[in-house]
């Protein structure tokens, strides 16, 4: 029995030394050793027990003549006990370990989360990431068709650097984009978003990039027009905008944002936008639809109504339509107003004073003339709008401009120099308005003798000619 054990130990030692180079021999030796060990355990259990525990190792090593070279060449760490332990470990490796999951069993514990599959193309099973040719889409835009067989219909989406779907506003590639908060679909066309207290913007129908500045849209019937989007925020304009590159003012509708053309009533005023360019008209303009000449302020472009001095000329525009009056229409308006005041008793000096004018203490005649012009809306035609009830102030103004003669015309202002004027060295002391001229018969309306009446002109009149320019 002792001889058999010596042979076994020698064989095991040689096997361990050569096992790295000859694994087949080592495995075979281990199998034989296991068989021998099994037999020994059956025949002599006490000796086998001592051998495993290493209590009799010195004896086994000293009696093993054939294994003396192994004992001398091996280091102290390579003892028979270690060999036997390694053999036991190898036997255990062949047995299933209940503490480790069976690698051949594909079943998954219900408590363990399911890892998303990585498809070749499309969404993972949790629809969190998207794959193209087996690679997750990151930092890129992807077109996702509505169905595998339909490549025309679908949506563009964007994935960030982590492969997550981008939603809401996103700045990339030098521009702003918007992606639906639910689906992530890239916005295209006109859209209302909540930023900047709410605004309408436009995203290019091809690229999805937010538009800035002037843009012509024609992607559908509803949005075919010129628009303007703020250079910084992209907000659609709904008001007057100055286009510097074209040196023109234009107007975009308050609701649709479309550039407007033709006549429009905006903020209590009339404007005209030229048919082709949309530029706001300035100055004297012919409106074919109304068959009239009108005038738009050169600064504000708003239509002018009433009297105005423009470029050194005196004009009157209808208070309602803005139509320019010619000379005869202005005169007719003045004389009609004068006749309407016959037998009336307006407080002409009081109204004049209320409007900042000077009152003449010698009588209301000039205050009445001023009142005719004022109530007719023709203030600028009387001394360019000067407000004074002194007759000689008005007479001197016209005479200094060469606008006084002895020849009367309807619409002229008649002046006389009566007694008080001589005493005070005034060139005029009474005034009235000429309403008719029939040869030598000149008819005036004035305030005299305590009333307003129509009468023949007094002798010695001089006539001032207001600027009734056409």
UniProtKB/TrEMBL annotation:
User: Which keywords does this Swiss-Prot/TrEMBL entry list?
Assistant: Repeat
Question: Which ranges are annotated Basic and acidic residues under compositional bias?
Answer: 90-105, 114-127
Native organism is Bifidobacterium adolescentis
The segments labelled Disordered in the record are 36-127
Q: Where is the signal peptide?
A: none
Q: Where is the composition biased (Low complexity)?
A: 67-77
In what residue span(s) does the Peptidase C51 domain sit?
A: 361-446
Q: Which Pfam families match?
A: CHAP (PF05257), Choline_bind_3 (PF19127)
- Compositional bias ranges of the Polar residues kind: 36-61, 78-89
Can you tell me where the transmembrane regions are?
Answer: none
Q: What is this protein called?
A: CHAP domain-containing protein
Q: Which SUPFAM superfamilies match?
A: Cell wall binding repeat
């Amino acid at each position: 029995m002792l001889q058999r054990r010596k042979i076994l130990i020698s064989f095991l030692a040689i096997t361990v030394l050569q096992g790295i180079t000859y694994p087949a021999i080592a495995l075979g030796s281990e199998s034989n050793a296991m068989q021998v060990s099994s037999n020994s355990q059956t025949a002599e259990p006490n000796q086998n027990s001592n051998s495993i525990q290493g209590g009799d190792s010195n004896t086994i090593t000293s009696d093993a003549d054939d294994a003396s070279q192994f004992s001398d060449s091996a280091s102290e760490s390579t003892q028979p006990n270690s060999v036997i332990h390694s053999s036991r470990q190898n036997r255990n490796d062949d047995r299933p370990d209940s503490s480790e999951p069976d690698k051949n069993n594909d079943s998954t514990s219900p408590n363990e989360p399911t890892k998303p599959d990585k498809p070749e193309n499309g969404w993972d099973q949790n629809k969190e990431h998207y794959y193209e040719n087996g690679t997750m889409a990151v930092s890129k835009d992807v077109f996702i068709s509505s169905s595998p067989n339909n490549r025309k219909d679908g949506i563009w989406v964007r994935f960030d650097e982590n492969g997550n779907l981008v939603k809401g506003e996103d700045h990339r590639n030098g521009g702003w984009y918007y992606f639906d908060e639910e689906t992530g679909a890239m916005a295209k066309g006109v859209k209302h978003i909540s930023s900047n207290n709410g605004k309408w913007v436009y995203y290019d129908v091809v690229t999805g990039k937010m538009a800035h500045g002037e843009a012509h849209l024609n992607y559908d019937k509803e949005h075919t027009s010129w628009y303007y989007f703020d250079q910084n925020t992209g907000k659609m304009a709904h008001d007057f905008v100055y286009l510097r590159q074209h040196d023109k003012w234009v107007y975009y509708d308050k609701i649709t944002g479309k550039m407007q053309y033709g006549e429009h009533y905006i903020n209590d005023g009339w404007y005209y936008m030229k048919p082709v360019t949309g530029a706001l008209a300035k100055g004297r303009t012919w409106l074919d639809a109304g068959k009239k000449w009108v005038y738009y302020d050169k600064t504000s472009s708003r239509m002018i109504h009433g009297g105005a001095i423009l470029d050194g000329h005196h004009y009157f525009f209808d208070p309602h339509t803005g139509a320019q009056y010619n000379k005869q229409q202005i005169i007719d308006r003045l004389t009609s107003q004068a006749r309407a005041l016959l037998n009336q008793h307006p407080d002409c000096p009081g109204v004049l004073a209320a409007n900042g004018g000077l009152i003449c203490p010698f009588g209301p005649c000039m205050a009445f003339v001023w009142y005719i012009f004022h109530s007719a809306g023709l203030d600028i035609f009387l001394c360019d709008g000067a407000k004074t009830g002194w007759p000689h102030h008005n007479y001197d103004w016209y005479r200094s401009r060469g606008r006084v003669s002895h020849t009367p015309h309807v619409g002229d202002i008649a002046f006389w120099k009566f007694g008080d004027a001589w005493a005070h060295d005034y060139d005029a002391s009474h005034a009235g308005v000429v309403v008719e001229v029939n040869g030598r018969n000149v008819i005036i309306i004035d305030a005299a003798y305590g009333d307003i009446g129509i009468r023949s002109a007094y002798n010695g009149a001089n006539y001032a000619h207001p600027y009734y320019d056409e």
